[in-house]
Write a structure and sequence with these properties.
Blueprint (H helix, E strand, L loop, with lengths): L8 E4 L5 H12 L3 E6 L2 H12 L5 E5 L5 H14 L5 E4 L16 H26 L6 E5 L6 H4 L13 H20 L6 E5 L17 H17 L16
Helix pairs in contact: 1-7, 3-4, 4-6
Amino acid sequence: MTTAAHHRIVLITGATKGIGLATAGELARAGHTVLIGARDPERGAAAAAGLTAQGLDARAVRLDVTDPATATAAAGLIAAEYGRLDTLVNNAGVARDWRRTPEELPVEAVRETYETNVFGVVTVTNALLPLLRESAAGLIGNVSSGLGSFSFLADPDSPVWEHATLLAYNSSKAALNALTLVYARALRDSGIKVSALEPGYCATDLNGHSGHSSAEEGGRRIARQLAEAAAGPTGAFFHPEGGRYAW
């Protein structure tokens, strides 16, 4: 159990199911207050209730990462209730090009992917930065993917090379990796650390449940990486099996 000095207020976007909810459970069981970011208030309330029924400290917060007004409202609620935010986990993500070639993918699907995976991260991060600055040790974890690593995209011998042509998803995660490094540099002097996290290839709605790991395993990995990110240098890209990715 955490001590009062180590208790953290954590907001996770897209946390009503899958890896986001699994991460919320891991962090709540570690003694932290977990805020369930949810586009749908009813689903958010149900997810939070499932955790509170286990005696955990969880609460739903309406937050659609593609709607700046909800990010501003969420920041206001957190400010009023807690006065700070210690950890922001930008977990919300979509994939609209699963098993579709680049030429088959409408440009509208690329835009939709970027709205959540890239622009949504900027929207939420900027809205919550004032509260992260109130933390003694602010931390931002961006849930990325090895599919967005340029070292992967250039490696035909990769074991997941079959996924190298996911135009919208892979390029959006590459952009997210760049955002991670930009924010890490910009916030270095503030003491807020920013890193990219990777849960592994987990079976979720995002990939039609084709992943090799469970969402619960992904949540455990994200929770572990957050602890490592808090203890280590800013600007890391964590590998699900331990160590770091090459960008």
